[in-house]
Design a protein that fits this description.
mainly alpha; 7 helices
């Protein structure tokens, strides 16, 4: 019986070590690419920042919140056009963190791997999974 437990724990340890190796090998936002000279000098153009800001401000959730605050669409557009280049770039840079589910793909994958590992461990220990 002791030998069976030892083999079982070796298998579980091997599966966990493999899972940690796989999860650890996934890079976290480490993409590199060639940037042209205009991208280095300017950083970001006003037109691209304006397009990003308008895209987010036109979403249903954000527009409803701004309308609840008493701002009309024309007021929002006027205020957006009056921003300087640096202010507009800073605003467009902060818009990525506006949506809370922006980088949830990694979290979803990690949760799926954990669920699969739990199911495999329960299956190896001859336990039944009952969902009611």
């Amino acid at each position: 019986m002791n030998l069976v437990k030892k083999m079982y724990f070796r298998q579980v340890a091997l599966v966990l070590a493999f899972a940690i190796l796989i999860i650890g090998s996934i890079p976290a936002k480490s993409m590199a690419y060639v940037v042209g000279a205009e991208g280095v000098a300017d950083g970001s153009s006003r037109a691209a920042d304006m397009a990003t800001a308008r895209r987010v401000l036109e979403s249903k959730l954000v527009s409803e919140k701004l309308n609840d605050a008493g701002l009309t669409d024309s007021e929002i557009k006027n205020r957006l056009e009056r921003l300087s280049d640096s202010e507009l770039h800073q605003f467009a840079g902060q818009l990525d963190s506006l949506y809370p589910g922006g980088d949830a793909l990694g979290l979803v994958i990690a949760l799926l791997i954990i669920v699969i590992l739990v199911m495999v461990i329960l299956k190896l220990s001859d336990r039944k999974i009952v969902i009611k």
